[in-house]
Backbone:
């Protein structure tokens, strides 16, 4: 359990660096996890969002049942920055509302804090809500291996997705501590504990 004032931590890092694994370690330490990917999926399932998606991105982003097709949405927005901004305008305000409710609940329930696992933490300005940001680092070849195995992505797909985000060195400079996620779970736990200590918290 983390013995410290309530802390809001953001996670940044490259795709496949293992931010979710770091979030899980922080959950073991008493943090509540705000998973923006899961939140975004929930937003896309809201009945009123389908019409907004069609207006912004075209009818091809719905499947034959009229539900959002996440792959088609991804193909549309990663090929067109204007469409990406339109999608963000639909999703991000709702995510912000979800996150605010989760933070308030976590604070009132006595949690150690909230960890925000958001792929676009800096790009969407979510870092402004954080007391500190942890940068999760891992070698590119390991990150590529992870997304190939977990998501079936090619190297070109990884490059395409990362090109739509801030450069990694910029994210790292804006972060307050670094966790290197290239070993086993115990090593990762030690890294996270050291990072929390560097931020002035106590773990134990």
Residues:
């Amino acid at each position: 359990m983390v013995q410290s004032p309530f802390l809001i931590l953001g996670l940044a890092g490259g795709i496949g660096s293992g931010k979710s694994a770091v979030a899980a370690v922080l959950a073991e330490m008493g943090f509540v996890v705000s998973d923006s990917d899961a939140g975004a999926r929930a937003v896309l399932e809201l009945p009123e969002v389908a019409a907004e998606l069609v207006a912004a991105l075209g009818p091809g982003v719905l499947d034959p049942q009229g539900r959002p097709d996440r792959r088609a949405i991804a193909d549309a927005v990663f090929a067109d920055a204007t469409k990406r901004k339109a999608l963000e305008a639909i999703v991000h305000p709702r995510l912000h509302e979800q996150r605010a409710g989760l933070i308030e609940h976590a604070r009132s329930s006595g949690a150690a804090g909230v960890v925000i696992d958001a792929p676009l933490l800096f790009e969407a300005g979510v870092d402004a809500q954080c007391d500190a940001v942890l940068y999760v680092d891992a070698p590119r070849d390991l990150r590529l291996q992870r997304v190939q195995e977990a998501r079936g992505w090619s190297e070109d797909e990884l490059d395409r997705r990362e090109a739509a985000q801030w450069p990694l060195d910029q994210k790292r400079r804006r972060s307050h501590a670094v966790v290197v996620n290239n070993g086993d779970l115990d090593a990762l736990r030690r890294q996270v504990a050291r990072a929390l200590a560097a931020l002035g918290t106590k773990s134990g």
Observations:
- The longest helix spans residues 81-108.
